[in-house]
User: Fold these one by one.
Assistant:
Number 1:
Amino acid sequence: KQEVTQIPAALSVPEGENLVLNCSFTDSAIYNLQWFRQDPGKGLTSLLLIQSSQREQTSGRLNASLDKSSGRSTLYIAASQPGDSATYLCAVRIISNFGNEKLTFGTGTRLTIIP
Amino acid sequence: NAGVTQTPKFRVLKTGQSMTLLCAQDMNHEYMYWYRQDPGMGLRLIHYSVGEGTTAKGEVPDGYNVSRLKKQNFLLGLESAAPSQTSVYFCASSYGVGAYMTDTQYFGPGTRLTVL
């Protein structure tokens, strides 16, 4: 059974710092991995999607990497801003031999950027 | 475009009551999903649909039913609500390119349901 872990559960950093959020998964046979952002009381917003054949994806100040063999992904945020404060979730997608698809979410890291 | 919308935003039910949550998307997506989010457990897939008229079970389908009569709408029903169904419910949709649901999912704002 695929398990997705995000440590730490909460993180506070001063504005302007670069930071890394971690995501680990137990089954390396993933199809892709996605990072989401969730603001309090709101839905999820997709940030980056990395296919299993890719090593990283970049969007603006965000860079996500994927190491399938070690079961890890990181989300790097450069020059953090107070507006980056949110909960960040990673999700991995696996597809079974029978064609069944499953998206498994981590429980998230709650990020607070201190002005 | 409104994206993915959900109604209602909040609801309180008594045990045994029934209700239907409505999800609507205006992006012409083929695939739609219902998740529930509980503290410390992450999002879990309840049911999903790969096209109009189709539905399939997810990870935690018991106690829920769904229907996809129109491409843009995906309904989640609770026939006899239980306190264990207290949760935040999210709907999502995606294009579903190819044989698998490989692309980005777009989420609605959520429905906060409390069952007393």
Note: The two ends of chain A are 41 Å apart (CA to CA).
Number 2:
Amino acid sequence: GENVEQHPSTLSVQEGDSAVIKCTYSDSASNYFPWYKQELGKRPQLIIDIRSNVGEKKDQRIAVTLNKTAKHFSLHITETQPEDSAVYFCAAPQGGSTLGRLYFGRGTQLTVWP
Amino acid sequence: NAGVTQTPKFRILKIGQSMTLQCAQDMNHNYMYWYRQDPGMGLKLIYYSVGAGITDKGEVPNGYNVSRSTTEDFPLRLELAAPSQTSVYFCASSYTRQGARETQYFGPGTRLLVL
């Protein structure tokens, strides 16, 4: 199956600074890369995703970049706010299959200090 | 529209007991999934279903069983609970079309403690 590595495991930033989380994947046929945010005691929720036919996608303060050659994708959060504090998970599917199986990274605990 | 719902929210089991975790969705999604989340380990897929009557194993299926008799419901069965099954269990669903992946929506989770 797919192997998804996520770094760093913890990240602390000052409010207003940027945060970057990086994930690598092993299957070159993977074509969909979502990012989920999980607040303490809550369910994971999708915040942004990118498909393999684009290199970057933005949604307000959040962006995701994809480098298919290097098999890595990154989450960028600009102008961080305390409410951005949460665990962030990346995921990648098993190859190019249409089946919905996703493999998740181990998560990054982001803490934004006021 | 309630989305994905799970019951119970929390349960304590003794070793060897059995239980069923319930999951339902009202979004007419075809795909449903069960994940477990252990501290610092992300989400691991237990079982998934691509439609009523069709289920398949994920990464960590041992000790669990599932069934999908309707589009809406996807219960997860633990037959002989073991301490290693202490975890938070999330059900999720998506509407996945041929050649296109769609967002997975998660339920609120069930926290299970096996003693």
Note: Chain B touches chain A through 28 residues (CB under 8 Å).
Number 3:
Amino acid sequence: DIQLTQSPSSLSASIGDRVTITCRASQRISNHLNWYQQKPGKAPNILIYAASSLQSGVPSRFSATGSGTDFSLTISNLRPEDFATYYCQQTFETPPTTTFPTFGQGTKVEVK
Amino acid sequence: EVQLVESGGGLVQPGRSLRLSCAASGFTFENYAMHWIRQVPGKGLEWVSGVNWNGDSVAYADSVKGRFTISRDNAKNSLFLQMNSLRVEDMALYYCVKATRSAVAGYYYFDYWGQGILVTVSS
């Protein structure tokens, strides 16, 4: 299975900060990498698909880049509603196939 | 508006069975692959199972293979997860999730999630 390693596991930031979360894949996955945001008590919400494409309705302060094995998500001008946990996910080979759509372990963005 | 509403969760003893259902609305259900993803409260996300648009191709995480069965009824806009031989480690919030492909290049991602249904496995 393809493993995804996010870093950091958590970070503390202030309103208006710029934060970056990284995600590394255990093998090359081209740009088949998605990012989700999850707030406490809520289901995850898609932010970015195909490594850098902003999902409709997602604010432009969210951006992402990467290809191959190294990816990053950046939140510019952090707002109160952005404090949440962020997950990367690979869909390099989508089921039903032999490779599963694994998730990173998550990065919690907390108030400093 | 897309809605995914899970039901069928609850408390069950180890070794017993449970059947989760997901009622879908607001989109053409038969056109999309569907998945179950679970999350232990306070922990990360784990993909459990997926089924293609017509149900003839399915996949499972190794942790549930042989015990769980995913199925769908397109006539009733419903997704199911039959969970047998439940273990304490299956205890989690189970999400019903809709998959989609982007219009350009067909990148695959999960665009809608239900609110989740809690499965508790305990004696």
Note: Chain B touches chain A through 26 residues (CB under 8 Å).
Number 4:
Amino acid sequence: GQQVMQIPQYQHVQEGEDFTTYCNSSTTLSNIQWYKQRPGGHPVFLIQLVKSGEVKKQKRLTFQFGEAKKNSSLHITATQTTDVGTYFCAGPSAGGTSYGKLTFGQGTILTVHP
Amino acid sequence: KAGVTQTPRYLIKTRGQQVTLSCSPISGHRSVSWYQQTPGQGLQFLFEYFSETQRNKGNFPGRFSGRQFSNSRSEMNVSTLELGDSALYLCASSLTNTAEQFFGPGTRLTVL
């Protein structure tokens, strides 16, 4: 079945350092979404990428969708303690008939040391 | 608008019992999806309902079932609970055919 892999599983950084998490799908995706889950919280939608090679920025966050639409990355510039949490990528599941069925990556747990 | 609400927030059951979890989507959202989150398996899709019909189903045994009511509220039921069913159960709602999934706070189920 479809698999979405994310690396690294954990990332510890000092405040001010950059952070990147990578996502790879076993199948071509029509779109990819990114979510953030704070400790003890629930996933919160960050962004959706649809086009091959698409790059989107949200303040210090930069999201990329690969040319083959099978991989994606999230880069945070100059991390802050508020960036702490788990970052998930997710894509529509193969055979899914709507956006409501997502396959999530395992997530990258980001810890930021002040 | 109020967010997605889930009740109860915490639940402790024993093996063999059954449980029903409830989810109220954001007003106007007709799609409701359920996910199970565990440290080992991560976020796994259970099922999705739209207009009272199950539109998608994940790879979970038949002990897991759900339904959606005419007001879009959804319930999921787990029968004959097993220890491995201990997890955070998350409900997400969305507008028709849009990507953004709005997650509720989840129900933390512990099976003893």
Note: The longest strand of chain A covers residues 85-92.
